[in-house]
Structures are given as structure tokens and as C-alpha cells.
Amino acid sequence: MVLAELIDGLGVLSAIFFGLGLILTAIEIYAPGFGVWGIAGITCFIIGIIVTADTLLEALVLMMILLAVLGILFIIILHSISKGKLPKSMVLESSMKKEDGYISTNDMKYFLKKCGITLTVLRPAGTVDFDGVKLDVVSENEFIPKGTKVEVIKVEGRRIVVRRAVEEQNN
């Protein structure tokens, strides 16, 4: 009986705040960010409760009901995430594999003395393929055409310096 009285007593203003709170909370779920939409949605819920309640006790009861509903929704969302039931648009399915030319190491010293083929013209910067791994490199003070075999002579952090391979220099 009390719940029916509460629903009957909802005014237009409180309904607007509750609806706005629902919309803002839904935006929070799908919009990347740090919680501005969610905080605004919860604030709208609280304002809607304050506008609806006649007494402090009634406001506290409504807050507890709201927190319980939000808690249940949170548990349902966590359960959906753990079961993999999220929409495909929210899940990144591609991966960066070594076969596709991606590397995850920051230690470029591995490529020191390695040979590769230029994929672009080096004037002096360009791209070289080292056994399927594509890297941005810099040539040692020279123009090197596309398709030339080069050797890594120096690695400084992420900067890789190359020159024509010895057999290329003899040709």
C-alpha cells in the first residue's frame, strides 16, 4: 500500500529527475570517461528522491531502495561481463600478433646486427622488414632506395640506425 501511495504521489518534477538519472546512468555505461555521466545520473536520482519525499525518513527509505536497485543492476552487469555477454561493439576482438608485424618488447637491442629489406625509401627515415617485423628506422646519413638489404648498426632506445648491408655496398 505504501509503494502505491509513493507512485501516486510522484510529481512531474521528480519523474523528470528520475528519467534524466536513468538516461545519464545509461550513457555512463557506454561512453568512455571517468564517471561524469554516472555522477550526474546519481545526483539526478538523489534530487528526484528529495523532491518526492515528504519527510526525512521517507527520503532515507527511498535512498535505500535506490541503492538496492543500483546494487542489483551492478551485480547483473558484472555477471554479464564475466560470462562474456557484452555487445560486440564493446569488446576489442583484434590482437596485435608478431606475425602481423607487431612486437611487444621495448628492448630494440635484439635487432642489432640484424639484416632486413627496406619497405620504403629511407631519406633518411623509413620502414624496414626484419623477418616479418616492420620497424621505423633511420639510415646513416644516406638515401637508401626501397627493396635494399640493410643492416642495423646502432640502437638508441627506440631509435634504430641502419646502413646498406655489406653485400649491397659491394654491388
From TrEMBL:
Q: Which domain of life is it from?
A: Bacteria
User: Where do transmembrane segments lie in this chain?
Assistant: 6-27, 34-53, 59-81
SUPFAM superfamilies in the record, alphabetically?
NfeD domain-like
Pfam families xref list: NfeD, NfeD_membrane
Q: Name one GO biological process term.
A: proteolysis
Q: Where in the cell is it found?
A: Membrane
Q: Any idea what this protein is called?
A: Membrane-bound serine protease (ClpP class)
| Membrane topology summary | Multi-pass membrane protein
Coiled-coil-forming residues are none
Q: What positions does the domain NfeD integral membrane occupy?
A: 11-78
Main site of residence?
membrane
Q: Which InterPro entries match?
A: Membrane_assoc_protease, NA-bd_OB-fold, NfeD-like_C, NfeD_membrane
- Assigned keywords, A-Z: Hydrolase, Membrane, Protease, Transmembrane, Transmembrane helix
Q: Does the keyword RNA-binding apply?
A: no
